[in-house]
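task queued by scheduler; priority normal; single chain, no ligands, no partner chains; default sampling; output format set to structure tokens
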Amino acid sequence: MNSSRSSWQPIASWLALAALAALFALPFLWMISTSLKGEQHVFDLPPRWIPRPIRWSNYPEALSAFPFWLYLGNSLLLCFLNVAGTLISCALAAYAFARIPFRGREVLFGIMLATIMLPAQATMLPVFLLFRWLGWIGSFRPLWVPAFFGNAFFIFLLRQFFRTIPGELSDAAVIDGASEWGIFHRVILPLARPALATVALFTFIGTWTDFIGPLIYLHDERQFTLALGLNAFLGRHGAEWHLLMAAATVVTAPLIILFLLTQQTFVKGVALTGLKG
């Protein structure tokens, strides 16, 4: 009796997970379905999941309705700068907190972690006033320069991973004459690729989907990102739901593809960062 129950438990777990995954996938699947319908079939009752006929022309029509390639270039530029800045600043800070003993290290690390509790809404106005004083409003700089000053969560994530790397490797490098920078560059970073890839993926997704930042700091439509451009598209073509869904599908698809390509590295990076406190 117990053996039959234990054999059914994994199957039940997988069925429950599959049902939950299907529930979360339904909005995305409906968005794709709507993007392939004609305007007169969007609100058909009962709703059709498989469009008849399929209108592939919705996609080029939607992309030609707003400067998609310009917004794509702006989004990719910001993603590249944010990923580069986050990896550089967070890796350096995490290495110092994890591997370099200095007075007050734990206190400083605790203060840094405490900043995670500050909601973005509480710091939005002071940060805006700072950037206005610097004369950066209306440019990309408020959207990428902060990435080069670290992120408390990612520093914590990388610090946890760096602490799992055996100290004997650093000692061996010191015996070979390596400097602190040499240890960081030649020993730690190559072993930390899963964690670095996880941070890069989180940063890319956050920058790609960021709407509030571009909305606050960008005024020229030529500087809009895809998230902000999609909102402008909604204002101009709100009634054309089939075109809006086509544009939204194109904007969302890169994130799905990126996650599927990096899924194993992402899961490995998240799992390994929790091995040691």
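post-processing summary
- The two ends are 41 Å apart (CA to CA).
- The chain has two domains: 2-59, 60-272.
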